[in-house]
Structure formats: C-alpha cells, structure tokens
Amino acid sequence: MNGLMQFMERYIIPVATKIGTQKHLVAIRDGFISTMPVTMAGSVAVLLNAFIRDFPRNWGWDGFVDSAIIQFIIGLNGHIWLGSLAIIAVIFSVTLGANIAKAYDVDPLPGSIVSLSAFIMGLTQSANLVREVASDALSADVIEVLTEAGITVTQIGENLQLGMGGWGFFQFSAHFGGPGLFTALFSGLISVIIFSKLMLKNLVIKLPDGVPPAVSKAFAAIIPATIALYVMALINWAFGHFAGMPMITWIADTIQAPLLNLSQGFGAVILLVFLVHLLWFFGLHGTNILAPIFQTLYGTAMNENINAHEMGLEIPFNWTAGSFEAFVWPGGAGVTLVLIVAILLLSKRADSRTIGKLALAPGVFNINEPVMFGMPIVLNPIYMIPFILAPMATATIAFFATQFGLVNPVVINVLWVMPAGISGFLGTAGDWRAIVLTVVNLAVAFIIWAPFVLAANKMEGAEE
To answer: DSSP secondary-structure letter at 87?
Structure first.
C-alpha cells in the first residue's frame, strides 16, 4: 500500500494537479457551470411537465392533462425550456467565451460576444424542404396559394412534390441544443484565445482619457475581435471548401458522434468512476478535475435526452451525467452515505461514530466533505479499497440495468443535492424501478463497506 501511495504521489498526483489547474480546462469547466442558472430553470420546467403531463398520461388521467390550467402551465414550461435547454449551445458559447477571456485577464464581456459570434457564423443558414402528396390532395386554388407563398409544386408521376428552400433557416434542434456544444467549444476556444492574446499584445485602438470607459473598452476590442472573427471565417470557409460540409456538421459527424458513442460503453463509464475516486482518495476533487470530460460528453448526452423527452422523441442515450448522480454515488463520492450508516451500526470507535453522527444529515443530501476529511477517507489506507470498489460496483449494476431496459434512462436533470432514491425517480421521469435500483446499489455498497468498518474496530485506539 505504501508503495502504491508513493507511486501515485510521485507520478500521478502532479499530473492530475496540473490538469485541474490548466486554465483552458478550468475555463471549459466554469463555462459549463456558468450555464447552471438557465439549465436548472429548464430542468425544473421539464420536471414540472413530467409531473403534470407525463405522469398523469402514464396513469390514464388524460382529462387532468387536457384541462385549461394544466395546458397553460405546460405552455409556460415549454417557453422556459425553449429559452434554456433547447439553446444550450448558444448559452454555453457565451459563458465559455467569458471564462476564457477571464483566464487571460481580459475583459470577459467582449470575449463572450466574440465567442457567440464565432459560433453563429459556423451554423448552416439554408434549408431545402421537400414533401410529396397525392395529386388529388390539393385543389387548384390551394396550389395557387402555395405557389404565391414561394413553395414550388411539381408533378412527379401520380404525386405532387412540394418544395421550399432559401436562406435564413437555422437548424434549431440540430445546432442550438446539445448537438452544437462541441462546435461552440471549438469555435469559442479558437476565437477567444486569439482575441485575448491580441488584447494582451496591446493591439488595440486607444482613445483619449476623457472618453467614457465603456466606449474606450469597446474601441479597444475592435481590432482583436475583427482578426479573431476573420480567422474563424477562414476556418469555416476551409471546411466548406475542402471537407465539402459546414464545420458544425463535420464536428458533429467526425468528433462528437464517435466520442458520445464511446462514452456509452461500460469501459468508459467504469474508468471515469475509478479515476474520480482515485483522485478523491488523494484529496483532489475528482469530479471537478474530470469535469471537462463529464460535461462535454455526458453533459451533452444529458441535454439531448432532456430535449428528446420534452419533444416526445426516442431517448438517444442510456447513460448521462445524471446517471452518475442518481445511481453511482448516492450520498456523495464513494457512496459514503452507506459508510456513515455502517459506522453508526457497526463501529465501536468513538471518533468514527462522532464523525458519522455529524456527517449523516449532510450525507443524505450528497454533501460528503465532513466524512471525506473528518473521518478521514482521504489518505486512509483501510478505506481506500471500499471507497473505490463500492462506486465501481454500483456503476456496474446501474449501467447494465439501464442497458437492458430494467430501468429507464435519466432524462431530467435533477439538483445534485436531491436525496438517494428520489434523485433516480425524478431523473427517470417517474420510473419506480429507479428507486429499486438505488436500494439495491445501497445494499451492495453496504456489503462492501461493512467488513472494512469492522476491521477499523481492531485498529489501535479503537476503544479510546
């Protein structure tokens, strides 16, 4: 054990510390965190619609759902969803730009504007919609009205082909939501890094001291912003010219889709769970250090699941960021809520029981710092194995339960402080089997933790 700890402290911990403090990764992490006010508002709206629309319909209470007041509330929630989760890529482009600029000690406001502009310029702007109908489905008067509205009507065999195209058609669901996050990340990083470096090189327009600060700052950002956006325009042109497709399509097909598919594998899930808890054992916030991976991959999957659920579409991903919170570490990293219960039931150590009593209430709400640093678990060799093994076991059970359809995927983003059981039930939009899965996972975690709690009783000073 000492050899392993020395190896980790010498080779792994310094690397993890550098990753956790690397300014670009920190900016990405903080960019995702900064979206929380609107993402949680959108999640609350989706959750309310699940309660007043989805649950009642599942129970056959269509009359309740069709009432005027319920339809009014559903509509309000729809507006909130439309302005939050449905456009999460747009929102993230703003928060990312601000945090990258802040990392370079540059004014974050123009940084966020540059990032948003760079993202928007990469979106496709035209659409061609074609649909065929039977020849006798449209009268001559209707065809005339459609033609005047700019819709082409072409006779093809026994059917009529209706066509409409033009400029100014953004692909809302395909680009503004979760599918656009990777492009927002790429365009924001490139454009704002260029902008920030030019600002730091003082390549700015300077105005006299008497000019109001707001005007002076705006003029100072003109040259760096112009150069940054021209670079992004050239990159977008290059994708269209050489790849034969817009940048956002290339990123979605070549980078985003393969990575998201990879993230759905058991190996990826269990590796991340292992790394999070290994870092935590050495006192490093594993979830924060690996937040860029969690949010970029599993956060994107979470947003796509939420939007698909709200629009009544097929749920695209089995495993999301919410799956970890709901099923893998209920009570906090390491399933430490179970450790607290095991200590209160089995421990003879006065110090452990005191910490357990103090940590129980926070642990119910997934706040486990009291037990992490008070027990402590950090750098405590006797608790290293169960701290890592318990969440790996719960991840395995939850992954395959979701994979085989024994419990529905997580489709609603629930606050991380939601108690175990309730979190899974709400996250799966009311699947009662999520409660059963949580209970099973807690029981398995207890079986893993209990022997080590009993072993701790035999340590020197246990009766003091």
So the answer is: G
Both tokens of 254, joined, read 């070549």
The alpha carbon of 229 is separated from its chain's Cα centroid by a whole number of angstroms, namely 27
Q: Give helix 36-49 / helix 300-310 axis angle, nearest 10°.
A: 40
Percentage of the chain modeled with pLDDT above 70 = 85
Q: How many CB atoms lie within 10 A of CB 68?
A: 7
* The 159-167 sheet, strands edge to edge: 126-134, 159-167, 152-156
Please give the Cα distance from 5 to 51 (Å, whole number): 48
Q: What's the one-letter identity of residue 265?
A: G
- Find out whether 363 and 375 touch, Cβ atoms under 8 Å: no
Distance CA 98, CA 308 (A): 29
Helix (H) or strand (E) holding 396: helix 381-403
Please give the residue that has the higher pLDDT: either 12 or 1.
12
Tokens of residue 78, six digits: 């729809």
Reported as a single tens digit per residue, the pLDDT across 350-360 is 888 888 888 88
Give the H or E element holding residue 130: strand 126-134
What are the tokens at 377? 């678990």
Please write the tens of the pLDDT for every residue from 196-238: 999 999 887 887 777 787 777 888 889 999 999 999 999 999 9
Label residue 366 left, alpha or beta by phi (over 0 means left) and psi (-120 to 50 means alpha): left
Distance CA 356, CA 376 (A): 11
Residue 167: phi and psi, rounded to 5, are -95, 150
Please say whether the dihedral angle defined by the alpha carbons of residues 185, 191, 194 and 200, taken in this order, is positive or negative: negative
pLDDT given for residue 178 in this prediction: 77
Helix (H) or strand (E) holding 156: strand 152-156
Give the mean pLDDT of 429-454: 92
Contacts of 267 (CB under 8 A, 6+ apart): none
Of the candidates 462, 449, 451, the residue with the CA atom closest to the CA atom of residue 340: 449
Residue 204 near residue 223 (C-beta atoms within 8 A):
yes
Q: What is the DSSP code (8-state) at residue 432?
A: T
Task: Work out the angle at residue 103's Cα, subtended by the Cα atoms of residues 101 and 105, and round it to the nearest 5 degrees.
Answer: 70
pLDDT for 464 equals 45
CA 399 – CA 415 distance, rounded (Å): 21
- Most confident range (mean pLDDT) of 9-18, 133-142, 390-399 is 390-399
Q: What DSSP assignment string belongs to 56-83?
A: HHHTT-HHHHTSHHHHHHHHHHHHHHHT
